[in-house]
Design goal:
2 copies of one chain form a homodimer. Chain A folds into 2 domains: about 40 residues, Arc Repressor Mutant, subunit A (Orthogonal Bundle), CATH 1.10.10; about 80 residues, 2-Layer Sandwich (Alpha-Beta Plaits). In chain A, about 35% of the residues lie in helices and about 30% in strands. In chain A, strands 3-4-2-5 form a 4-stranded antiparallel β-sheet. In chain A, strand 3 and strand 4 form a beta hairpin. In chain A, helix 2 crosses helix 3. The relative contact order of chain A is 0.14. At the A-B interface, helix 1, strand 1, helix 4, strand 3 and strand 5 of A face helix 1, strand 1, helix 4, strand 3 and strand 5 of B. Strand 5 of chain A pairs antiparallel with strand 3 of chain B. Chain A binds a DNA duplex through helix 3. Chains A, B: Keywords: DNA-binding, Transcription, Transcription regulation. Chains A, B: This is AsnC family transcriptional regulator. Chains A, B: It comes from Flavobacterium flevense. Chains A, B: One of its GO terms (molecular function) is sequence-specific DNA binding.
Chain lengths: ~150, ~150
DNA sequence: TTTTAAATCAGAATAAAATTCTTCAAATAT
DNA sequence: ATATTTGAAGAATTTTATTCTGATTTAAAA
C-alpha cells in the first residue's frame, strides 16, 4: 500500500479548497522546491487520492439556487424496480445527488432548481413519470450553513 | 446584467466536470480559437459564474468513506442558541455540509467518517459537546447512486 | 440600403507555468 | 563502513496561458 505523509496531506487539503495554485506557490507553502511538489501531486493523482479537478459554479447565477432534499420510497423492493429507478434518476438533471439509505425511505435525493415553481414542475413532470416511485417526501432548504464543496 | 450565451454554457458544463482541459482543447470542443475561449472563461470567472476550482479527493483513501445524514433539533429556537450551534458545527471537520431546513427538524447535516465506530465517536464526543442540540436522528448511506460533485 | 460603432474572432507574439532531467545529499540496508 | 535507495534542488526544456494586433461580423443608426 502506497504511503502518504504529512506534506502530502497538506497539499491535498490545500488543493481541495483551491486547485489553481501554481506548483511554485504550493512549494512555498510546504517549504519545498517545485519539482518534488510536482512529483508528489502526480503521485497523489496516479494513486487515486485526487480523483479529478472541477470548477464550482454559482447555482444562483445559473437559476439553480433553490435546494430540496427529497425522500423516496419505491413501489416494490425487487432488483428490476431498483435498477429502473437508478437508470431513470440518472437522466434527470435537477437531481444532483442520490443515495440509497437506511430508515423509512429508500433513497435520499438532493434536488437543485430555480424556485418553488420549478420544483413543482420537477415533481409533477419529472418524478411523476418515474414509474418505480411509490411515495415522496420533500424537505426544503431555507439556508446553506456549511458546504465544503460550495 | 451580464449576458451568457450557448457557448458559455457549454464551457461551464465542461469545466464543472473537468477543469483540467487546456484552453486549446476547450477551443476545439466549442469550435473557436484559443483567445476567445480564454476571454470567455475569464469573464465567467470575473462575473461570478465560476466561483472557484477545486480538487476532488477520494473519501475512501482518506478514511472518510462512511456517510451519514444527521437531522438535528435545537433545544430552543432563539437567535443565541442558533448562532452558537452554527459556530460550533463550523469547527467540526466530520460535518461536510449543513442546511437549515423545513419540517420536523431544524438542520440537516452530511457527515463523513471512516466507519460506524468513528461515527459513534463523532456523536458522543463531537455532537455530545454541542450544548445547543436537543435531539438527533441518523440516516445511514448504504451506497452513493449519483453525485455530480463526486 | 449604407454607414458607423461595438463585439468577437483568428493568429502571431510573449510571458508564465508545467514538466523533465541531472546532480547531490540524506537515510537505510548490507 | 560501504552500497543502495529515496527524495530534494536547480537548471533546461516543453507546454500552456496570456496578451496583442488586425480582420470580420453583427447590430444599430442614418
Amino acid at each position: 500500500m502506497e504511503q502518504i505523509d504529512e506534506i502530502d496531506l497538506r497539499l491535498l487539503n490545500i488543493l481541495h479548497d483551491n486547485s489553481k495554485y501554481t506548483v511554485k506557490e504550493l512549494a512555498k507553502m510546504v517549504n519545498l522546491s517545485a519539482s518534488p511538489v510536482f512529483e508528489r501531486i502526480k503521485r497523489l493523482e496516479n494513486n487515486g487520492y485526487i480523483k479529478k479537478y472541477i470548477a464550482l459554479l454559482d447555482p444562483e447565477k445559473l437559476n439553480r439556487g433553490f435546494i430540496v432534499f427529497c425522500n423516496i420510497k419505491l413501489k416494490q423492493h425487487d432488483r428490476n424496480i431498483g435498477n429502473q429507478f437508478v437508470s431513470d434518476i440518472m437522466k434527470i438533471e435537477e437531481i444532483v445527488e442520490c443515495y440509497n439509505i437506511s430508515g423509512d425511505y429508500d433513497f435520499l435525493m438532493k434536488v437543485s432548481v430555480k424556485d418553488m415553481k420549478h420544483y413543482q414542475d420537477f415533481v409533477f413532470n419529472k418524478l411523476g413519470s418515474v414509474e418505480s416511485i411509490g411515495s415522496t417526501q420533500s424537505t426544503f432548504v431555507m439556508s446553506e450553513i456549511k458546504n465544503l464543496y460550495g
